[in-house]
Amino acid sequence: MTQWNTDELVAADKKFVWHPFTNMREWCAPDNEPLVLVEGRGALLRDSRGREYIDGNSSIWTNIHGHNHPHINAAIRRQLEHVAHTSFLGFTNPAAIELARAIVDLFPENSLSRAFFSDDGSTGIEVALRIADQYWRLRNLRKHQFVAFKSGYHGDTAGAASLCAAAMFDFGFGHWNFPAIQVPDVRALEDLSPAEVAKIAAVVIEPLIQGAGGMRLWPSGTLRAVRDWCDRNDTLLIVDEVMTGFGRTGRMFAIEHEARLPRERPWRTGIATRETPLGAPRPKRVWRSSKKNEFWKHCSRKSNTWRLCWPDSRTFPTWSKCGSADLLRGSSCESQETRLRCVSKLGDADSSRGQFGK
Description:
- The chain is an alpha/beta fold.
- It has 2 domains: 6-68, Aspartate Aminotransferase, domain 1 (Alpha-Beta Complex), CATH 3.90.1150.10; 73-344, Aspartate Aminotransferase, domain 2.
- The chain is built from 15 helices and 9 strands.
- 35% of the residues are buried.
């Protein structure tokens, strides 16, 4: 096992690194020694002092098959022998094409038909918001407002943070965020006035369960009710499956429990089933409008890097190799809801956060 100089690493970190969502005064306090993670195998992580930990949140929802999976590692190595990255602006490549086809094949024919690759989870939501905004602009309609649900979390870039995170973390950057309002539940959505509804471009929701907001379960039928509301009011629905996608709720995607497809489905980091994040918003009817008019103005030139797409396109067969796909097909909504409620009883998120890392 590699020997690490933990004291030297911690000192250098405190001198040179700025960590996200972190009180750096507390982080850099002399008596604070952060965990220096150096290795991962399966569900376990090891720090520089040789201690092991269970990776309980899959490195924030990105690692589905476990760390150092041999099948995925081999795919990364094979791709690096060719090229690590080429621009997606004005070019294409076999890895991105193959991955997009594999993603589309997960859905019923003539439903969600294209994938737009983004850099990570937050930018996956960002892209979905911009696509929704431009969709209504192309139709010459003044729909520019977004609706999200209180206690939700969709990322920390400007648009994504405007949905809920700005209030959650007291960002105070409202002057350059997307225009957004928060509602507590479907009843409040139904109570919006006609004048407010007329301005709504899209509703954004975490299906079945809110993650960062405290593992809060939605009442059964919530997603279906939101979908119906959007249909009645000619509004787009954006479903954020960062935490629930790729089998985490007993189906490949959480929205399958209530059998209604959204018009946009950002997977965010859920698609990154290996070691690094990648997002893939899935626009449905918005594509039909754009192809008759102009190009999408949101461009993520580096998001399709070969190193990410090639391992992901090779990850889909991993489901069948591990038997995961058969397991998902055999699960029921009722049994999965029971499992989710058992998880929620482990304690609220605030108390859990205080215990981790001590």
